[in-house]
Design brief:
This protein is α+β, with helices and mostly antiparallel strands and about 280 residues long. Helix content is about 15%, strand content about 25%. It folds into two domains: about 15-75, no CATH class; about 115-270, Aromatic compound dioxygenase (Protocatechuate 3,4-Dioxygenase, subunit A), CATH 2.60.130. Strands 1, 2, 7, 10 and 11 form a five-stranded mixed β-sheet that branches. The chain has a four-stranded antiparallel β-sheet with strand order 6-3-8-9, with no helix packed on it. It starts with 13 loop residues before the first helix and ends with a strand.
């Protein structure tokens, strides 16, 4: 089965993330909300210095202030930055299928059954802030409700020539790519996941390729898998806690779908360092 077990790239430390933006005291609320300019706020302290509590301040008050400052600093790290690249796996096929709804098989017109899932990927370029990246090609591919990929051959299936649950979109002026798919199933050795790849160009014109995987909360997956057609697969054998690739992700790639109608909608921000 899927032997995609190698980490590609690594998580940025908080210091490295902040260094990308030039100063510790800068709050960047722009890139991941579709705005294009950072909004700076004054830094409370210069790194490497200490602050003497005001006259009459108690140690506990000083500790509380330090805790608040730490929390504020954590909020300053743009969520579109701290995303690790993960292995492509053996099932990527460059089908060149430009489509938003990937549930159907263009070969025979059949549609894969499963709980509907709307995906929105918000792609930004990292520079002075997170700037929406237009024109990037985003591929998504995944297994169906029973753990089967299209256009692949494995000991458990042969779907050569089929093209369900695959496709790409080009990010719009807001840096968004949207897909209609189904909640993925599972297969032996892997937790529930969806693969994605972003292809664009660096500032110097060289090709840039970022590949990773999305995951899901186990509790949500348990609820979805009680329903047809997922229930026919039986109890899954691999959860997030014992999936090596999920552990390598640092828990940074878990989607947080919101319930909507008979399915879910999930938005995920990601920043690419193209300089």
């Amino acid at each position: 089965m899927d032997n995609d077990d190698a980490l590609i790239g690594r998580l940025l430390t908080r210091r490295e993330v902040l260094a990308l933006f030039g100063a510790v005291g800068v709050t960047l609320a722009a890139g991941c909300t579709g705005e294009s300019s950072p909004r700076p706020t004054p830094a409370a302290n210069t790194p490497g210095t200490t602050t003497t509590p005001a006259s009459g301040a108690t140690p506990s008050a000083s500790l509380a202030a330090a805790s608040t400052a730490t929390t504020a600093a954590a909020a300053e790290v743009p969520s579109c930055v701290v995303v690790p690249a993960l292995t492509e796996g053996p099932y990527f096929v460059d089908e060149k299928l430009n489509r938003s709804d990937i549930r159907t098989d263009p070969v025979d017109g059949t549609t894969k059954a499963g709980t509907p899932l709307e995906l929105v990927l918000q792609v930004s370029a990292i520079g002075a802030g997170c700037t929406p990246l237009a024109g990037a090609l985003v591929d998504v591919w995944q297994c169906d409700a029973l753990g089967v990929y299209s256009d692949a051959q494995d000991p458990g299936f042969n779907t050569r020539g089929k093209k369900f649950l695959r496709g790409y979109q080009v990010t719009d002026s807001a840096g968004q790519a949207k897909f209609t798919t189904i909640y993925p199933g599972w297969y032996q050795g892997r937790t529930v996941h969806i693969h994605f790849k972003v292809r664009t160009q660096r500032a110097n014109g060289q090709a840039y390729d970022f590949t990773s995987q999305w995951f899901f909360d186990d509790t949500l997956s348990d609820e979805v898998f009680k329903q047809a057609p997922y229930a026919a697969k039986g109890n899954r054998t691999t959860r997030n806690s014992n999936d090596g690739i999920f552990r390598q992700s640092g828990d940074q790639l878990v989607l947080k779908p919101a319930k909507g109608g008979d399915g879910y909608t999930a938005t995920f921000p990601i920043g690419l360092q193209l300089g």
